[in-house]
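>> received
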Amino acid sequence: MSLGRSLRLVLSPPHPAGRPFIIGGVAVALVGGGFLGAWLFWLGTLFTLFCLYFFRDPKRVRPEREKLVLAPADGHVVSVMQAVPPEELGLGPAPRWRVAIFLSVLDVHVNRVPADGTVTRIAYRHGKYLNASLDKASVDNERNAIALKLPDGRDMAVVQIAGLIARRILCDIREGDAVIAGERFGIIRFGSRTDVYLPEGVRSVVAEGQTMIGGETVIADLAPPRGLP
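>> returned
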């Protein structure tokens, strides 16, 4: 990554969800520091800088090709395996390929829509706050599951999962919304995981350990092989 792109990433404007934290940090630095001493000023300043970094929301450029599944989040792939989608989505008991992406506190935490389609179901479920890099986090942790109907009638899912220190999942889309691959749809605070359940019969093109860029990295091709309808 070039120095210019790295600076643009770090200095990106914050997501709206971070504004209360940033304003609070500035208030602590200015008001608390003025009345209680320099230590509170520096504490508030450091907290503000951390929030500016954590909630950064850089622009992303989606690939021009159609019928692609894009990474819904920044981070690294912790598992690529077959799994049954969350039962609350009603997508059936058949296993399908799942790509799990772990987001550390250093990653951009804005979630992006993985594919063009229509939101058919959103289901929030309370749960635990295990380390999001663990495979059982997909089942046990607090989560927000979203089912998408693709233009060709197939379905898939994306799941926001809270992590060890994450305590808030935000989702800005609603059932019935038409969505476009790469557009923002939510954010998770602080450290989390995002899973994608591909349509049945579709396999991912990424591997465990690979680094994802939300809204840009291709994780699957929805187009049938050449020669097939």
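>> The longest helix spans residues 19-36.
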